[in-house]
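question for whoever is on the cluster today: can someone run the full assembly for these? two chains, 568 residues total. i dont have access anymore since they changed the login thing
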Amino acid sequence: MSAILFILFAGLAIGCAVSMIVQRNPLYSAISLIGVFISLACIYVTLAAPFIAAVQVIVYAGAIMVLVVFVIMLLNVEEEERPAFRLRYLVPTAILFAALLAAEASFVIFTVQTSPYQQAHPSASANPSEVGLTASIGRGLFTQYLLPFEITSLLLLMAIVGAMTLARRASFLSPNVRVVPGAQVLTRQTVDPRAVGDATAIETDSTIEAERLLGLENAPHAKDRD
Amino acid sequence: MDWNFVLSIILQFTAITVAFTVVLMIVAYTVLAERRVLAFIQGRLGPNRVGYGGVLQPFADLLKFILKEEIVPDKSTKFVYFLAPILAITTALMPLIVYPFGPTVRLPFLGDIALVIARFDVGLLYVLGITSVGVYGIALAGWSSNNKYSLMGGLRASAQLISYELSLGLSLIGVVLMSGTLDLSGIVEQQSAWYGMRWNIIFQPIGFIIYLISAIAETNRVPFDLPEAETELVAGFHTEYSALKFALFFMAEYVNMFTVSMLATTLFLGGWSGPFIQQLPWLGPFYFLGKIIFFLFLYIWIRGTLPRFRFDQLMNFGWKFLLPVAILNIILTATLALFGWI
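^ ran it for u. tokens below:
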């Protein structure tokens, strides 16, 4: 039974992975990648590791891929034009690495029958159902693997701080600067809604400064601007 | 392959079919109840012509959805366009299988069975995982329709779901800290002490309120229904969907309402537990459904009462108020649990 399920989900994962590479539309690639993650989660369930499976779905399929899809949708990325095949020397390299990977995989399949953990603790295989469960993972994270856990947390914290710094770079400018995206040259009709058709240009990147330069500072709408 | 295995698989399929049928029937009548209650709130009558007092209205609506013409936009991305409603309804229905509907009951010929389809060690995480995948239905629908209103609705929906998922997940951690398990059946069994009244809401009032608010946002309901704000976006992500595909989105929304109400009931209101549950285990499913129906009524009531948020208010509220309060609730609960006071 578990063999059937494994073949089903492993085939699905490989199929989705191939489809991810072959697809030209970036959104189709993203959907295929979601398929890969969900198939992997199903394999984890058959391996009696439900916690890893749930976390796999929540983190990869649910959070990271949502952001990827979000960006693809927001930028409205078109189907990529297939470029002329330039990097020809990559083909033999790829074949070499594929052969290496296949050799590695077959080495693991044919020679390593028990994992290093089981070799060290022969009694652990007596009740293997304990390993993937939530309580045992939590206990392991906060006792035996505390240092890697804390280091990973610190790494994530650094990434968050870095992202915040990059995103808030705009706030280093003075607070009343309002950049109109893509319009460094403002016209009078952009600044003053009453002056339709007046294309007197003014070169600034802040509507407030443009108003000052155009002498509209005391215009009635300027004060109740948000 | 022995007969017990085959029998258990047949039992599982029967249980899933029964559960899905019951839930879809309740969902159909939630739609009717929403129309009647809203009408009552607004001083109207609502649909009362099909059947006695309108009881056959859901079936009339379904028939209409089936018979309507299917319109597919010419420039849409066909595969994704058809995939989106399927994803929406599948991810809405999938969490149903881990909820305990009642305690262990005695059935003729089958002996004692627990009224839960699949008891899962990480039931809560499973529910959260499926919910987080559910956003793709809406996001892809918005993208594939090739319509600016749909795209705006899809983008709004993804942003909103990502933001409120955080506070939703964090509001549940208090309950997990108290019960020490992620298994939904285990969480309910702990709440059936004190004659079935040891509900987690007594110990986790802040978590419950945060969960309630985030759950309304997660299901795109008023006052958080910005992805389908009809005054700004026509109908949001499902503008280009017609006939049965629209019905699938519609059903998915109401099934989602049902499942978040189930989660609220299971985690905060004691699930199937209640008075006299030891003597009469069959009361369990009725307690469970009664509590869920209370939540569904609350949803309709809120819809009839509150106006819609603005999008920046929604984001500020989620990130700058709900999330910090949820984190504070975790710290408070963890401190109390550390000293053994709860």
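summary bc i know u wont read the tokens: Chain B touches chain A at residues 77, 79-80, 83, 120-122, 125-126, 128-133, 135-136, 139-140, 142-143, 151, 154-155, 158-159, 161-162, 165, 181-182 (CB under 8 Å). The mean pLDDT of chain B is 85.
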